[in-house]
Recover the amino acids of this structure.
């Protein structure tokens, strides 16, 4: 192959975007079809630069919109090769139509989503509005909390998505700016290790197999549509988690880094816990330790590593014995409870666990989630646990200026 | 093949369809009768019931000009080795374009009621028309 | 945990400086973080960048910090923004200015009771690198004030961080770092 | 580069083995499938195809049947061009990496889309494909209306046509704007080849498709596709209407090389009055009322002017 390998230090100081770009290089993505949008742009710029410098061999399609970006990815993926792109926010929203088409056609495209708020009003900073918009799109959604994970989860995502038993597209999420533009130490894989872990792309129903013509993207009437959608749902519900577990195990063997579908921090004896996504998980872990040391509150944290498929049983296991749970949603719920609250409520309602569940809306448009905020939350959860019922409104906005916002 | 009594677990993922059963080389040089069509290829289906009238071919007048072949929307004119052989009644929808574009006098293709007997039709074929000046 | 806040204008290289510092610190086995406050603002707008350094893994992602050091790499920012915000009694300031420390404290009374060091990173950068990019000289001054690393060790590592640049530029940066190290007061 | 298929005459052309199949669900007499057959049969090369949402797409890939004997993809209404562009990019990548399954074959990449999917909703996507220089051909099946959804006007609908969203009525003569010049817009991208074709002129079509498939880079083809359902004529008359369109010069046939050099490729021996073309279709029926007859005259003037413009451009040779 006509490209050079890159010598990496054991630890590189990379931001989340560059870490993801390096992963795309190391797995030798064949086609990237992309459109720039803050804060995800550096990922595809990175691939383009690696291409320009001869560190990867492939095609970079710089198209005229995110809709076209995913359309190009779909065509390229159906043609039969490794495909990836990146986007955020409005770009993600513009892509939504094609997201459903990619998953419905069972094309293993990897989309790096650098989470960002949705306008209006316009905001380039990180919250989970775009991530939540992808919930029903039929994609696997991995969530990273720091640049190391943004790097690692790309390898996991390719391995799982491209598995012929799975054949579903996957998103790797990282928090806009808080991860994407924050440089931290990243333990690297060598180019050979990384490529070896994911393996060579194995085509399936590839359009470029000229001796076996295939038709992709058919029309189904009422007599077929339900069955096809049911099949896709079934595979998401039953086939994805075992493959992710397998990939996590293989990755741990290779790197020593252990990932879990649901990450639990100090939950074994926890009385109270928050459930969160993204960088907030780690900040919460630091605060939970401090709550234990300074306040004697048995605090724990549950981090959702795989947001779709929703890890119902894993969470049911994780919350055992916890008396008060706080669902931390970083997206404007716009007239409902937050998504994490609702999904957790769905787990609790038929379980023997009787945790008090409350909802915190925080961090919209990149608003800082401070340790002070989290301390308050843990204290409120402790009060709920002691009372055995909510002592606050069920939904509270934290970190917003003006009169307190709380509902129900 | 997939039929609509099948359950969700009985067909290929992604609603993907194959044109042929097994590999085929040089498709563009392989006539239809030599192809191993998949049951999901519409070649294996029929739209005969769409017709009210059908074109009947009378080879006595045919000059093998191939206008009917090129202008047939439904790949229903069977031509092999530059010779017009007849109409594929599984795929003909009865649009009558072939009849319209037939340049012979009398025409080599004419529309008849669907139930018309081919031999009888040919027996009753019209005479050459004198061109009006 | 060591925490640093950079005050800069977009385009002056604070983010690159913060990342460069993180890169060097990481080679010594410490855990690092380098990030910035971004908006849609373009070149010239005031912005802040941040470093965290610790012996253990850094989990905290809050942007709020009480910095141990404040770097100001644009001379006007001490007057147009509050560089002392969220300070603690031990916070040290390294400020780019053509003024002496005393002159600066007089001009900006907020700094009067603070531990302030001054150095003209802009002038140094212009005279060595040929462009007003004051980020690397600031790090030279920081090495002097903090005593974090031996200056020769720091420069050797900085050469690696800058390796993609032309040799001439790398040499000029080394000169700038050394001058700021020598000139900071 | 594979050898170009030799097609001297129709007899020779008729030895082609079709890669488009019957028992699709297109209307009897639909010109779409005639055009598709002429395009596909113009080459023996392998083909990678796409269709944007529209009549062709919903009628040729209705589960569990496909009418396509070459690999084919449909994504949405607007992005069939980009789907094929993505496949073409993948082909380039895999070729360079030595991972093609049939490395000796050079497939051609062709996207089909209606005028709605090309002139309107897919405009930006096609522009992107043309601008980026993909080695592909985009073929518009231009029936001047959203036929798939029941006859709404598109920006290809000509002035005076009655469409369901610009209907002729007691006080309206139907569509108020004339169709936009898509071939000129696409040629303005500086692409190596763009052309207007019609199914009745099969030889002109085959020549242009062959040339288009041979040149390196993006190619745009606007194919007139008379719609028996929405133009309102008898299915048997599809080719007659096509003849009226090309011979009245309503649909002049020409090509534009490298974005500027225009060649007229068909000059009718006897130019037919536009009125005959209009009179043959139900969508223009109301124009023959007294109050709208001036529009027929305007139609003729516009067609004449356009023909003159094309001739002048051709003469200029620049």
């Amino acid at each position: 192959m006509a490209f050079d390998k890159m010598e990496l230090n054991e630890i590189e100081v990379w931001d989340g975007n560059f870490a993801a770009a390096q992963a795309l290089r190391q797995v030798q993505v064949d086609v990237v079809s992309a459109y720039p949008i803050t804060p995800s742009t550096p990922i595809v710029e990175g691939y383009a630069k690696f291409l320009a410098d001869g560190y990867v061999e492939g095609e970079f399609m710089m198209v005229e919109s995110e809709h076209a970006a995913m359309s190009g990815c779909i065509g390229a993926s159906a043609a039969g090769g490794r495909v990836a792109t990146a986007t955020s926010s409005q770009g993600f929203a513009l892509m939504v139509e094609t997201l459903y088409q990619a998953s419905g056609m069972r094309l293993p495209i990897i989309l790096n989503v650098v989470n960002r708020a949705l306008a209006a009003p316009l905001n380039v900073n990180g919250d989970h509005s775009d991530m939540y918009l992808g919930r029903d799109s039929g994609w696997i959604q991995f969530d990273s909390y720091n640049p190391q994970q943004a790097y690692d989860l790309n390898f996991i995502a390719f391995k799982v998505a491209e598995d012929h038993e799975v054949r579903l597209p996957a998103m790797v999420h990282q928090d806009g700016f808080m991860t994407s533009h924050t440089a931290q130490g990243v333990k690297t894989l060598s180019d050979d290790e990384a490529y070896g872990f994911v393996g060579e792309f194995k085509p399936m129903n590839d359009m470029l197999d000229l001796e076996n013509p295939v038709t992709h993207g058919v029309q189904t009437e009422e007599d077929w549509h339900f069955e096809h959608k049911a099949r896709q749902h079934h595979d998401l519900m039953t086939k994805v988690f075992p493959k992710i577990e397998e990939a996590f195990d293989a990755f741990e063997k290779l790197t020593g880094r252990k990932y879990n579908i649901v990450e639990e921090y100090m939950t074994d004896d926890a009385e109270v816990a928050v459930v969160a996504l993204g960088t907030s998980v780690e900040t919460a872990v630091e605060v939970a330790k401090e709550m234990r040391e300074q306040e004697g509150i048995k605090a724990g944290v549950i981090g959702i590593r795989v947001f779709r498929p929703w890890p119902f049983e894993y969470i049911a296991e994780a919350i055992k014995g916890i008396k008060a749970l706080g669902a931390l949603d970083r997206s404007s719920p716009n007239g409902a409870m937050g998504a994490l609250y609702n999904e957790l409520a769905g787990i609790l309602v038929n379980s023997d666990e009787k945790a008090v569940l409350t909802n915190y809306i925080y961090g919209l448009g990149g608003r800082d989630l401070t340790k002070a905020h989290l301390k308050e939350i843990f204290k409120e959860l402790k009060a709920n646990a002691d009372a055995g019922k909510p002592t606050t409104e069920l939904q509270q906005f934290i970190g917003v200026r003006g009169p307190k916002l709380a509902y129900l | 093949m997939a039929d609509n009594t099948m359950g969700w677990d009985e067909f290929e993922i992604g609603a993907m369809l194959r044109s042929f059963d097994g590999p085929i080389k040089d498709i563009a040089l392989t006539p239809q009768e030599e192809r191993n069509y998949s049951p999901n290829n519409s070649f294996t289906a029929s739209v005969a019931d769409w017709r009210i009238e059908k074109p009947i071919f009378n080879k006595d007048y045919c000059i093998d000009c191939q206008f009917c072949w090129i202008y047939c929307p439904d790949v229903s004119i069977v031509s092999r080795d530059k010779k017009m052989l007849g109409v594929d009644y599984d795929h003909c929808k009865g649009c009558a374009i072939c009849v319209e574009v037939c340049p012979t006098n009398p025409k080599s293709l004419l529309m008849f009621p669907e139930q018309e007997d081919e031999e009888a039709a040919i027996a009753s074929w019209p005479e050459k028309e004198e061109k009006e000046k | 945990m060591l925490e640093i806040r950079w005050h800069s204008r977009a385009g002056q290289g604070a983010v690159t400086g913060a990342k460069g510092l993180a890169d060097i610190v990481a080679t010594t086995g410490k855990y690092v973080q380098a990030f910035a406050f971004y908006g849609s603002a373009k070149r010239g707008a005031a912005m802040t960048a941040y470093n965290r350094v610790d012996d253990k893994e850094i989990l905290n992602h809050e942007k709020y910090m009480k910095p141990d050091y404040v770097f100001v790499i644009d001379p006007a920012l001490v007057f147009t923004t509050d560089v002392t915000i969220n300070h603690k009694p031990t916070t040290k300031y390294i400020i780019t200015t053509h003024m002496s420390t005393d002159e600066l404290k007089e001009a900006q009374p907020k700094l009067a009771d603070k531990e302030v060091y001054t150095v003209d990173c802009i002038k140094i950068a212009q005279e060595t690198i040929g462009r007003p990019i004051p980020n690397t000289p600031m790090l030279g001054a920081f090495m002097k004030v903090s005593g974090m690393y031996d200056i020769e060790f720091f420069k050797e590592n900085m050469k690696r961080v800058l390796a993609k640049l032309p040799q001439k530029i790398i040499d000029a940066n080394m000169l700038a770092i050394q001058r700021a190290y020598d000139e900071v007061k | 580069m594979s050898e170009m298929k030799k097609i001297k005459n129709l007899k020779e052309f008729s030895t082609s083995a079709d890669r488009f199949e019957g028992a699709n669900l297109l209307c009897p007499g639909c010109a779409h499938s005639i055009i598709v057959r002429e395009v596909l049969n113009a080459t023996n090369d392998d083909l990678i195809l796409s269709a944007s949402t529209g009549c062709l797409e919903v009628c040729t890939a209705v589960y569990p049947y496909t009418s396509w004997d070459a690999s084919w993809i449909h994504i949405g209404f607007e992005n069939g061009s980009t789907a094929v562009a993505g496949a073409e990019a993948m082909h380039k990548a895999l070729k360079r990496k030595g991972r093609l399954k049939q490395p000796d074959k050079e497939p051609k990449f062709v996207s089909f889309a209606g005028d709605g999917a090309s002139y309107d909703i897919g405009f930006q996507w096609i522009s992107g494909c043309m601008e980026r220089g993909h080695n592909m051909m985009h073929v518009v099946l231009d029936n001047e209306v959203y036929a798939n959804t029941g006859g709404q006007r598109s920006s290809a609908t000509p002035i005076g046509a009655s469409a369901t969203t610009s209907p002729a009525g007691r006080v309206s003569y139907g569509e108020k704007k004339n169709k936009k010049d898509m071939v000129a817009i696409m040629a303005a991208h500086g692409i190596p080849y763009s052309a207007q074709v019609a199914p009745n002129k099969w030889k002109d079509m085959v020549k242009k498709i062959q040339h288009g498939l041979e040149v390196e880079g993006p190619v745009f083809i606007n194919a007139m596709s008379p719609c028996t359902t929405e133009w309102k004529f008898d299915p048997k008359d599809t080719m007659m209407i096509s003849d009226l369109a090309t011979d009245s010069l309503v649909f002049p046939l020409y090509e534009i090389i490298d974005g500027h050099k225009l060649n007229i490729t068909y000059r009718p021996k006897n130019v037919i009055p536009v009125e005959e073309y209009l009179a043959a279709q139900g969508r223009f029926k109301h124009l023959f009322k007294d109050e709208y007859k001036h529009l027929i005259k305007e139609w003729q003037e516009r067609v004449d002017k356009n023909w003159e413009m094309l001739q002048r451009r051709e003469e200029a040779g620049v």
The domain at 2-183 of chain C is CATH 3.40.920.10 (Pyruvate-ferredoxin Oxidoreductase; domain 3).
